[in-house]
Amino acid sequence: MADLVNAQITDAITQTNVKVLGEAPAQSMGMVYQTMAHSLSLSMQNAVTAQTGMQQLNAAIISTACQKILSLTDKT
Questions:
Q1: Is the pTM of the predicted complex or chain greater than 0.70?
Q2: What Pfam families has UniProt attached to this entry (predicted)?
Q3: Using CA atoms, how far apart are residues 6 and 18, in angstroms rounded to an integer?
């Protein structure tokens, strides 16, 4: 059995390895950017949810304050 490998096969494998190694940094940075964008979107979603909760609390406080003001005018 011969230990010789065709030069075209060796060249094809070498080119594939170089291609994979050349694309790895770009794919890694793409993954980092996607992860950062997802984290930022979750942060914005949490901020919107918190703002909605504060608006609901504000409406309840105003309603209670108006009710107390009206109850003061009824007693006189």
A1: no
A2: RebB (PF11747)
A3: 19
Residue type, 25: P
What is the maximum span of the chain, computed from C-alpha positions, in angstroms?
112
Q: What is the pLDDT of residues 14-72, one digit of tens each?
A: 999 998 888 899 999 999 999 999 999 999 999 999 999 999 999 999 999 999 999 98
Whole-number Å distance between alpha carbons of 36 and 28: 12
Separation between Cα atoms, residue 14 and residue 69, nearest integer Å: 83
Q: Whole-angstrom Cα distance, residue 76 to residue 69?
A: 12
Which helix (H) or strand (E) covers residue 35, if one does?
helix 7-75
Task: Supply 14's token pair.
Answer: 């070498």
**Cα–Cα distance measured from residue 56 to residue 72, given in angstroms and rounded to the nearest whole number:** 25
State the DSSP code for 59.
Answer: H
